Each structure stands twice: as C-alpha cells, then as structure tokens.
Amino acid sequence: MNIAIYVLMIIQLGLTAYFSLRARRHRDPLKRGLNFARMNIMIGVLFLTLSLAQLFTAPFRNLFVAFAILVLLIGLYNLFVGIRNHITFSQMIDAESQQVG
C-alpha cells in the first residue's frame, strides 16, 4: 500500500510540473489560465493524498494529526479553486470559439 501511495504521489507531482510548464509556455492568456487551473487541481489532489498518507501511515501523535489536517485543508482549498478556475476558463474559451466560428 505504501508503494502505491508513493507511485500515485510521483504521478501527481509529474502532472503538476507538466501543467506548470505548459501554462508558462502558452501565449494565449485563456489557455494559460486553464493550464494553471489544472495545475492547481493536481496540487490539491497531491496534498490530499499526502495528508491521507500521513493520517493512515504515521503514528497518531498530535503534531502529525495537526499537520495532516492542515495539509488536507490546503489541498481542499487548492482543489476548489482549481475546479472553479477550470470551469471559468473553459466557459471563456468556449465563448471565444463561438464568437470566432
């Protein structure tokens, strides 16, 4: 189980780096924002995975639990903001493509 969690976190970290590099290379601000939103989603999922791994594999000490809950809340916030921005930028891209077409 620990190996699966580590592999999952490495995949999520790789996708975060991929979307970050992709966002920084785009000239179109809408596609940049969409890729930054995807990066935020992946960071949120990565933090959620990290916090759940911390909760389920580490000994239950107050400091470990407090750290895991803090990382969980940061992950949920990143996931929420990423999904919200992804919806917003997707709608803006759809509206722009309908105006052009």
List keywords for this structure.
elongated; mainly alpha; 3 helices; 101 residues
What is the SS-derived class? mainly alpha
- Poorly predicted ranges (pLDDT <50, ≥5 residues)? none
- The helix/strand series, from N terminus to C terminus, equals HHH
Count of folded domains = 1
Write down the overall geometry. Answer: elongated
As a percent range, the share of strand residues is: under 5%
Mean pLDDT across residues:
92
**Overall number of strands:** 0
Instruction: Please count the helical segments.
Output: 3
User: What's the oligomerization state?
Assistant: single chain
The major beta sheet can be summarized as:
none
In helices, the fraction of residues equals over 70%
Q: How many angstroms separate the termini?
A: 50 Å
Task: Return Rg in Å.
Answer: 17 Å
Structure notes:
The chain has 101 residues and is an all-alpha fold. The chain has one domain. Helix 1 packs antiparallel against helix 2.
List the helices and strands and how they pair.
Layout: H1 2-25, H2 29-57, H3 62-100
Helix pairs in contact: 1-2, 2-3
Give a short overview.
The protein has three helices and no strands. It is mainly alpha-helical and 101 residues long.
